[in-house]
Amino acid sequence: xxxLVSIIMGSTSDMGVMKQAAEFLNEMEIPFExxxxxxxxxxxxVMEFAGNAASRGVKVIIAGAGGAAxxxxxxxxxxxxxxxxxxxxxxxxxxxxxSVLSILQMPAGIPVATVALDGAxxxxxLALQILAxxxxxxxxxxxxxxxDLAKKIVKANEELDAITYNFKVPRTK
Length: 173
Prior knowledge:
Layout: E1 5-9, H1 15-27, E2 32-36, H2 43-52, E3 60-66, H3 71-78, E4 83-88, H4 97-104, E5 113-114, H5 120-132, H6 136-162
Parallel strand pairs: 1-2, 1-3, 3-4, 4-5
Helix pairs in contact: 1-5, 2-3, 5-6
């Protein structure tokens, strides 16, 4: 089985955040791989990885990075594949803003789809949405996932309706 999604991160210290993506992809039965690749420590390996990912069957790359967060942009500069950047609030980060802006502010021609700070699960959901555009079975998975999200809100409102207060007015439906 070849990976359809590649999860990469600047170091294993980012795994606490990036595991959210792995868990979602695993739940959805999407083949993926996980690698630690540093744009600063092993730039040659990063170039090799990015240059070969498409030929290995990878369709989407999720790249997490903290601090200066160059990894997603460097990957995007080399690969023709869509890259989803996950800014990580790391120990050397300025409340995560440096990571967010480093990934978000890419020059024209080198796009990186950027999710929220520490938003690896959303990156995996976006990866599934990208894969689903060309795969009816994956599209049905995505539709079911969205339907299940809606059911959670319906259930939440039912639970809120059961809470009583003297001056609580019934919810408008």
